[in-house]
Amino acid sequence: MTDRTWPPLAVVIVTYSSGQVVEGCLRSLDAALAGAGPARIVVVDNASSDDTLERVRKAAPEARVVQMGRNAGFAAGVNAGIAAADGCDVLVLNPDIRLAPGSVLRLRRALAVRGAGVAVPRLTAETGELHLSLRRRPTVPRALGEALLGGHRAGRIPPLGGLVVDPASYGRPHAVDWATGAAWLVSRACLDAVGRLDERYFLYSEETEFMLRAGDRGFTVRYEPGAEAVHLGGEQTTSSRLWALSSANRVRMHRERHGGPRGQLMRLAVGVNELVRAVAKGRAGGARHRAALRELAVMRSWPLPPGGMEASPDYVCFSAQDWWYHNRAHSDFQLMRSVAARRRVLVVNSIGMRMPTPGRSTQVLRRVGRKLRSVAMLVRRPLRDLPGFYVMSPLPLPFYGSPLARRVNAGLVRAQVRAVSWALGLRRPVIVVTIPTAWDVVRPMRRRALVFNRSDRHSSFPESDRPTIEALERGLLERSDHVLYVSTALMGEERDVTGDRAYFLDHGVDTEHFRRRPESEQPAEIRRIPGPRVGFFGALDDYLVDFDLLERIAVELPDVSLVLVGAATVPMERLTRHPNVHWLGFRPYEQIPGYGSGFDVAIMPWLDNSWIQHSNPIKLKEYLALGLPVVSTRFQEIMNYADRVRIAADGDLFLDAIRATLRDGGLQPAEAMRGSVLGASWSSRAAQLMALAETSPDPR
User: How far apart are CA 506 and CA 331, in angstroms?
Assistant: First the structure.
C-alpha cells in the first residue's frame, strides 16, 4: 500500500472532564498530521462536567463532537468515534497526548508494513523520560514473576515478565504483542476484521484485548520509534478505584480468553502481586493495592459502570423476519448480532402483518406450519460465540383488521415478551422495532429508548391491511426516539413527521463472509452449470421480483444459464420449463457466497412498485463485496451506485445491459467493486445505532 492508496484518516479523542489537557492535544495535530493526508477529527465526550466541550470548540471548531450523554467508558467512546469515521483508518488518542510533528505520517507508513493492523509511537514524559509502553502477551507465570521480582526485574526475563524493559527494543521498529493505548493507529482492514473494542471492560484492558484479538486474526502491532508522543499520564497511579479496576480487568480478560480455571489462576497471581505491594508500602502507601485486593476478592463478572446497569442497556428487537426460517442476512438480524457482541440482545421473531388466508396469500398451510414450528423453538441462544444473543418466537394472533383482536393479540405477545425479558433480567431495554405491528405491543412497555428501524414501507406490502398498517407506522413515526432509514426517498417523504429524529443508516455487509471463492471452493452443483451464468440469490417473492423479466432473460438469451438461488413464493414451472434456467432453491446463508462466486453477472430484477422504490436491498453490497458485475432495474437508492452498476429503466435495456456486461466484464474491476464496500461493516452500523439509542433522552 502506497501513500496515495491509504484509506481516509480519522482522529478519535475520548474525553471525560478533560478540559485541562484536551486543547494541547488538539493543537498538536496540525503539525503531527503533516504529510499524512487530510483527517477528520472526532471528539467523543463522556458527559464531561467541566469546560471540555467549550475548549474543544475553541481549539478545533471543525471537529465533530459526539456526546454520549453519560460516562459510557473509554471503549464505548472509541466505538462511537469509529462509528462516526466509517471507512477510515482511526488514530485513537488520549486527550493528554501531545503528538510530535510528522508522527502520524510515520505511523501510517508503519501500518503499511505487510500484516500490520495497529501502529504505536514512542511515548515519553514531558521531561523526555521514556515511557515503557511495550508489553508481552499476559500469562500467569508473568503475573507471578512480576509479583515476586517486580515489573522491571521480571521484564528482563521474558518468560517471567510482561513489561518490555530493554532500551534497544525502544530504538527500532518491530512487531510487539501489545502496547499501552494512549496513542494507537488502527487500520480499517483490521477494524473490519476484528470488530470494535469490548465495552464490558469500561476502562483498562480494552485496548489490550483488542490488540490480542487482532493478533489472533493474523494482524501485527507495529512499534515505530520515529513517531513520538508526549504522554502526560492519567489518574491510575493516584486513584485507588481506578487501580483496583485495572487489576480486576486483567483477570477478566484472561478469563474471557482462556476460560474460567485459567482466569482463577490469573486472579490468584494478580492478588499475590497486590498483596506483596500492599505489605511493602505499608499503611500509608499501600491504599491502592489494598483496594485492588478488596476488588479481587469480591469482583463482579464485569465492572458496574457509573450510574448502574442503566448505563449499559440491553436490547429487545421486534424483527420483521423469523430467525428460524428466513434468510439471516436481513438487516435487523445483522445489526442485532453485532450489538450482541457488546450488549445482551433478545430478538423477537416476526409477529406478522396479517393471518395468511386462502385466495389472498400464497402457500397458506406451509406458512402457518413453519410459524408453529418456530413458536415451538421457545427461547434459544442460537450462536455459540454470542452467549448474550437470544431468540424467541411468541405465539401471535395476527388479526389486525379488528380493533378488539389487535388489542388481544398485543396483550398476548406483550405478556410473552415481558415474561422472557424478566427471566433474562432485561429490565429497561432499548426497544428496536422493524415491523409496524409491534407498535401495539411496545407502546406501554418500559424502555430506555424506542428506535424504529424503518427498513421498508410495510403498508405497501400487497397482503397487508393498508389502512391499519399505515396507522401503526404513523404511531411509530410520531413516538419513536429515533427513526432509522435505509431509503433517502422514504426519509424525505416522512421528514414532516420525524423531523430531526430521522437518521440515515445505510445497510452494511459482512465483507469477511462475502469474499470471492475460487472455483475449487464453489458448490459442485453450480460448477456443473454451463457458463456464462447470470445469477440471483435471495427470496423469490412475487411482490419483489419481476418474473416476466426473468422469463425474458431465459428466452432471449438462450446461450446464458440463468441461476436462481432462493426460496420461492410462487410456482416456478414457468421458468424451469426453459432448459437454461437452473432454480436451486433455498440455500443456507453460510453457503451463499460460494454460489455467488460462480456468477458471471449478478442481477437485481425488481418490480417497479412502491415497495421497491422505497427500498435499499442488502443484496447489492453482497454482490459488490464478491466483486461481481451487477445489472439492476431502476430505483432511487441504486442511483448512488451508477458508477459501479448498470441500471436499466425497462426490460429491453436490462437485457442489453446483461449482454454488455458479458462482453466487457462490468463497469469496474472486481477489486474496485469489493473495495467500494469494505468500509460498510455491520459492526460499524451497529455502533452507529448504539450511539444514537444510548444517548436518547428518557422516553415520553
Answer: 10
pTM: 0.59
Q: How many CB atoms lie within 10 A of CB 678?
A: 16
Return the DSSP state at 5: G
Cα separation of 334 and 506, whole Å? 12
Burial category of 422 from C-beta neighbours within 10 Å (exposed 0-12, middle 13-18, buried 19 and up): exposed
> Which positions ≥6 away from 614 have C-beta within 8 Å?
456, 457, 460, 487, 489, 490, 493, 636
Q: Which pLDDT tens digit goes with each residue over 603-626?
A: 999 999 887 888 888 899 999 999
Instruction: Catalogue the E-assigned strands of 491-611.
Output: 502-504, 533-537, 561-565, 581-585, 601-604
C-alpha cell at 42: 472526532
The pairing of strands 174-176 and 379-380 is unpaired
Q: Which residues pair with residue 150 across a beta bridge?
A: none
For 519-550, write each residue's pLDDT tens digit.
999 999 999 999 999 999 998 988 889 999 99
> Average pLDDT, whole number, for the chain?
87
Q: Is the peptide bond before 532 cis (omega within 30 degrees of 0)?
A: yes
Nine cell digits for residue 238: 493516584
Q: Tell me the per-residue pLDDT of 640-688, one tens digit each, with 9 for 90 and over.
A: 899 999 999 999 999 999 999 999 999 999 888 887 787 677 877 887 7
Given a contact cutoff of 8 angstroms between Cβ atoms, the answer to whether 505 and 484 are in contact is yes
Instruction: Give strand pairing partners of 345.
Output: 315, 389
Provide φ and ψ at 99, rounded to 5°: -80, 140
Query: Among 106-110, 215-219, 483-487, 535-539, where is mean pLDDT lowest?
Result: 483-487
- Contact residues for 30 (Cβ-Cβ < 8 A; gap 6+): none
d(CA 202, CA 476): 33
Helical pair 240-258 and 260-285, crossing angle rounded to 10 deg: 160
